[in-house]
Amino acid sequence: MYKLYDIVKLKNSNISGIIKKVDFKKGKHLYNIEINNKIIFAHEDNIEYYNENESIPNKDKFHKPTVNIYVKKKNNNTSSEIMLRHKTLDIALFELENFIEESISNNILNIRIIHGKNGGILRKGVHDYLKKSNKVIEFRLGGYTEGQYGVTIVKLKGKNND
Q1: How is domain 69-162 classified at the CATH fold level?
Q2: Tens digit of pLDDT for each residue in 36-67?
Q3: H-helix or E-strand spanning residue 32
Q4: Which tens digits make up the pLDDT trace of 89-144?
Q5: How far, in Å, CA of 162 to CA of 160, rounded?
Q6: pTM for the full model?
Q7: Phi/psi zone of residue 119: left (φ > 0), alpha (ψ -120 to 50 degrees), beta?
Q8: Cα dist. 3→31, 69, 74 in Å?
Q9: Which of 67, 71, 72, 110 is 20 to 30 A from 38 (CA-CA)?
Q10: Topology of the domain covering 1-68
């Protein structure tokens, strides 16, 4: 088990951060990890200790206040929307995976992904990820009043629909 303020790395990536909170859900530890002034959620099997011999990217940002990736509603459920604009594809997909897990666990099965219109790299990456995900029933680009091609609307499978 990792503890508060341990510096950890996401497995199979070069993304590292510091543990800011530890929760216990469904028999596993869930860690809130601050990365580039954002909080991500990761299960214990998705992280590892950061190698001390490696330089720590953005070490000066670890002490700054955190900003949640997803907006929390007043009833403490995860929002049905995630903002991925201006993020690298690797970080965006990692945040999206966590967001989908949180949404399903909070029984939010219709979500909105804001990836922006500029260039379409995030949109393509998000759509490729959604096509391969076994947690997605269907997805489409937003309509005229939903954000058009800067937004993807997703219908997720529920907990009991696996």
Answers
A1: Ribosomal Protein S8; Chain: A, domain 1 (3.30.1370)
A2: 777 788 888 888 887 655 554 544 444 333 33
A3: strand 28-35
A4: 888 888 898 888 888 888 888 999 988 887 788 889 999 999 999 999 999 988 88
A5: 6
A6: 0.54
A7: left
A8: 9, 21, 28
A9: 110
A10: SH3 type barrels. (2.30.30)
Instruction: Give the total residue count for the chain.
Output: 162
Note the maximum CA span of the chain.
51
Q: How far apart are CA 130 and CA 152, in angstroms?
A: 10
Q: Amino acid identity, residue 146?
A: E
Q: Parallel, antiparallel, or unpaired for β 81-83 and 110-114?
A: parallel
Report the C-alpha gap between 141 and 144 in whole angstroms.
10
Q: Tell me the β-bridge partners of 152.
A: 113, 141
